[in-house]
Design a protein that fits this description.
- It is a single chain.
- 16% of the residues lie in helices and 36% in strands.
- The chain has 1 helix and 5 strands.
- Strands 2-1-5 form a 3-stranded antiparallel beta sheet, with helices on one face.
- The radius of gyration is 14 Å and the shape is globular.
- The two termini are 26 Å apart.
Length: 75
């Protein structure tokens, strides 16, 4: 699952690949945003943790990760 997190006052977004499901990530985001002093904590596929203060989260985009294709494709 690819997750993009927009952070206030920062021109770049945080992008990570997570092994968590869409529903799990959505629940973590919803829980973090309920509290002004909460934190959004996600773990990427390599086990690294990303922690963003909830009051700085501008947006969260949750999408299916890119499927890696092997070989040539005709367009």
């Amino acid at each position: 699952m690819e997750v993009k997190i927009g952070v206030l006052h920062t021109p770049r977004e945080i992008v990570l690949e997570s092994t968590q499901s869409h529903d799990e990530v959505e629940q973590l985001v919803a829980t973090a945003l309920k509290s002004v002093d909460g934190q959004l904590v996600l773990t990427d596929e390599r086990g690294r943790r990303v922690i963003v203060p909830a009051n700085l989260v501008a947006y969260v985009e949750i999408a299916q990760g890119d499927q890696r294709r092997v070989g040539f494709a005709a367009s």
